Structure formats: C-alpha cells, structure tokens
C-alpha cells in the first residue's frame, strides 16, 4: 500500500466522513494532490495521502464540508520522530559504533608463527619493547622498526614480517638454517653388523681390523685412541708412559654381509571372501528378559561369520535396570580352495622371502649376489624357500668413548 | 464545429498523431477484469464499492463491479481496481 518514494516522504491514512466525499476527491484531483488506495466502508472513504499533501488539504476540507480523521501513518518522517523521542536508544547505537571503532583500533593478540628453535618468549619481549603488545594502539606501532629490531637482535632470524588482521598482530618469522654442529667428542668406530671386512679406509684414528677379518656386531673397527710411536727411552731414565691421543675416529669400513630370508607357501590355499549379503538381527535386553525385534533362521547362510555389537546406555543412567541392545550381523562368506603348481608356489615363496630380506638391507648397500634354494621337507603340500643375499656395505658406526 | 472536428480527425490520421490527444477523448485501458485505467477524465461523480461514475469530456463512464477501489488518483488518470463486471459509456 506504500511505495519506496512515499515511504521516504511519509504517508497518512485518512478517513473522510461527510455527505459528498467525491467532491473532495475531485478537488484533490484539481489541486494535484495524489490520493491512492481509496476504499469505501459504509459511508466513509478511506484513502492514503502523502504527508506533505496532508497539510495542504485543509482549505479543501473546509469547503467540501467533510471531516478528516487520521487512521494510520507510515514512513521515514514518523520513524525519525519516534527515534527523537527515544534518545537513549540513539545514544546506545552511537556508543556501540564508537566503541566498536575504538576497540578495533587496538591490538588484542600478538601471534608469533614460524618459530622452530627460537623460544617464543625471546621474540615476544623484543616486540613488546618496541611497542608491539596487547593493548597497544595499532596506528602507533611502527611495524617496520619492530621487524628490523627483531631481525637485528635475534641472529637466528632470517626474515620477519608483521601484519595486522583485525585486532590480531601476526609476527611471521623465518629462521636461518644453521649448519649442524659437528660432534668433536672422541669416538670409536664399531661394526654395526656381522661381516667380513673387504675394504678399509681410515681417515682419523687407528685401524683395529684388517682386510679379511670377520667381525661381529659391536666389534671395534677404528680405535679412537691413537698411540704415537713411543720414543725410545733413554737409558737411565724411567720409560716414558705413552699417553694415547684421543681422537674422533672416522673412516670407511666396507664389509661383505649375508642376509637370509625364509618363506613358505602352501600348495593348497583357501581364501575366504565376503559375498556382501548380510542379515541383521536386533534384540533388546531389559533386566533379565530379552526381546528380539526380528527373528532370523538358525543358520541364515551355509557359510557365514557373525559380528555382535552391544549398545549400552551410559553407566550412570543404567544402574538399576540393565538395558542393552544387541545387534548381530550375519555376513555370508564364500570359501574357495585353490591348488597351486609347485612352480607357482615356489615363485611366490621366493618373492615373499626376498621381500622379507629387502626390508633389512640398507639402500646404500651394494648387492653382490642373490640366490635361493628350495628346502626339502617331509610335508609334500608345502614349499619352503630360503633366500641368501650377499652385499657389500659400510658398517661403520660412530660411538662416543665418553658418554 | 462538427466539420472542424472531422478535419482535425483526418489531419491526425494523416500525421499519425494519437487521436485521443487531438480529439480530447478518454483512453480506457483494462487489464482483464482486475484493473481499469481511465486517462483524460474530468473527475469523479460517485464512488461506492459496487459503482464508480467518472465524468468524461462527453458523457460519463459507469463501472459496475465488486470491491472496487481507486488505486491511483491523479489529475490525468484514475485507476480502478477490484472486480470489474460491467462498463457502461453514457453520452
């Protein structure tokens, strides 16, 4: 009943009562006063009129001998009037926006991301020192200066970026990747595996083994105590005690190592697969009596497996009467027997054995030979395969002398 | 007078000017039986929900119907809304 343009200017619903309301309408038409939504109830006319036109109809009302009564009013001028009467509401709205604006110009959280080794607190204290902390005004923070100071004062930092997202300041830090600190403690080089030594290159220390030696795991390969050739003691003097130098033994000790893997395969194989058919039985237990919701035959499928799910209420509401429901799922399964040829079984066992061995061989190892043998067994329906893998690899393992 | 009107009409036809402007005739547009727009009227004579009488340059227009309301009342046009049942042109 009221359009947008009329809403802005305000509109009034009036009741015209009198003998000749049509005359008044005609007068309005002549005066270019817009009326709309005119309806007649009994003897009275009801019409909508614009607010500014409403103040112009007074002379027309007087000469057409009718009475005008305002029934309703709509529009922005009336809303404004109402707001003017309720000043506290307006004040609240203004206060809300003002508060929102002021609070959003402060920093409330400082978040530091990208730290790996530097302690969080270290960066935080520097940032706080230069003004970047919770409660600071956003505009007063010179983020470039803070960035520079953090980068200067923490040597491990490669780059710092500060950006503000709302009331949160995010300090993004990229750390330098420092070269690893070399361990300089004196150490021995010991064997990490059993094997036969094939190659010795000593960089630091004194070799404790020679080519062709068989070593066990943990045996000393390169000695960290280096004995310098003792100067011959002069006659008449006590023999010089040769103090060994403590070194960190380094070197490459390669050894021949054997790995053994074993696997077996049965000629007869049964595989069990689910067919996908299933039936569900639901039962409910209240106290000692059991109610089942759907009856199933004793044996739903010729071959099947069952899964039973118990559902209980939490203990605290299940104290007096035990209520639980049992869902039993019967799944049909299909068993298949498969017979393999000896050849097939052997290949399979060989592959399995190799796989088992492979996991214990390091990637850097150089494989020298690989062979397998089929073991003789009294049982005829099984094939057993043993795999031997021979490798040459570095077995040196550094162990500190003093822990 | 009548001859002059006839001449005007033929001139209007020649120049393709809408005849309602030249002849000062009302233009009445109906949208189904829901709306009836009368342009170039001379005012309202009577209005009740079942009958609206509109004065024209010659004679008057009687609109019979149910729950008739005057939607938009301006100097040039009158919009009658509601259920229009009968329109009578009295000269």
Automatic annotation (TrEMBL), chain B:
Organism of this sequence: Sporomusa silvacetica DSM 10669
Domain of life of the native organism: Bacteria
InterPro entries the record matches: Spore_YabP/YqfC (IPR022476), Spore_YqfC (IPR022477)
Pfam families, alphabetized: YabP
The name this protein goes by in its record: YabP family protein
């Amino acid at each position: 009943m009221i359009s947008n343009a009329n809403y802005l200017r305000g509109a009034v619903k009036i009741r015209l009562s009198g003998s000749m309301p049509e005359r008044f309408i005609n007068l309005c038409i002549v005066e270019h006063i817009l009326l709309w939504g005119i309806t007649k109830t009994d003897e009275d006319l009801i019409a909508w009129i614009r607010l500014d036109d409403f103040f112009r109809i007074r002379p027309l009302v007087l000469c057409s001998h009718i009475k005008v009564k305002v029934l309703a009013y709509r529009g922005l001028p009336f809303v404004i009037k109402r707001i003017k009467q309720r000043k506290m509401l307006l004040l609240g709205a203004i206060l809300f926006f003002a508060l929102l604006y002021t609070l959003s110009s402060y920093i409330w959280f400082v978040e530091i991301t990208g730290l790996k080794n530097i302690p969080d607190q270290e960066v935080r204290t520097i940032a706080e020192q230069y003004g970047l902390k919770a409660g600071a005004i956003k505009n007063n923070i010179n983020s470039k200066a803070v960035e520079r100071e953090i980068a200067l004062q923490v040597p491990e930092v490669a780059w710092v970026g500060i950006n503000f997202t709302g009331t949160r300041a995010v300090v993004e830090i990229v750390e330098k990747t420092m070269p690893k600190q070399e361990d300089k403690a004196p150490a021995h080089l010991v064997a990490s595996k059993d094997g036969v030594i094939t190659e010795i290159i000593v960089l630091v220390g004194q070799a404790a083994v020679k080519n062709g030696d068989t070593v066990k795991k943990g045996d000393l390969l390169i000695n960290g105590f280096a004995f310098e050739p003792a100067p011959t003691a002069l006659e008449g003097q006590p023999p010089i005690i040769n103090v060994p130098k403590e070194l960190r033994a380094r070197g490459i000790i390669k050894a021949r190592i054997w790995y053994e893997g074993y696997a077996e395969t049965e000629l007869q194989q049964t595989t069990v697969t689910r067919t996908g058919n299933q039936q569900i039985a639901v039962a409910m237990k209240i106290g000692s009596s059991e109610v089942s919701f759907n009856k199933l035959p004793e044996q739903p499928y010729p071959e099947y497996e069952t899964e039973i799910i118990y559902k209980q209420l939490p203990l605290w509401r299940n104290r007096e009467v035990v209520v639980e429901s049992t869902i039993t799922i019967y799944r049909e399964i299909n068993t298949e027997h498969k017979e393999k040829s000896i050849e097939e079984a052997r290949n399979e066992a060989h592959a399995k054995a190799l796989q088992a061995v492979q996991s214990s061989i390091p990637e850097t190892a150089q494989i020298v030979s690989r062979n397998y043998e089929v073991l003789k067994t009294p049982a005829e329906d099984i094939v057993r395969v043993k795999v031997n893998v021979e490798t040459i690899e570095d077995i040196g393992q550094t162990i500190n002398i003093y822990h | 007078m009548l001859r002059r009107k006839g001449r005007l009409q033929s001139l209007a036809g020649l120049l393709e000017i809408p005849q309602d402007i030249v002849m000062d005739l009302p233009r009445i547009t109906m949208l189904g039986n829901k709306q009836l727009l009368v342009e170039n009227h001379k005012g309202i004579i009577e209005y009740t929900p079942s009958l609206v009488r509109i004065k024209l340059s010659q004679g008057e227009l009687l609109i019979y119907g149910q729950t008739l309301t005057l939607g938009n009342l301006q100097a040039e046009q009158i919009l009658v809304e509601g259920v229009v049942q009968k329109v009578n042109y009295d000269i």
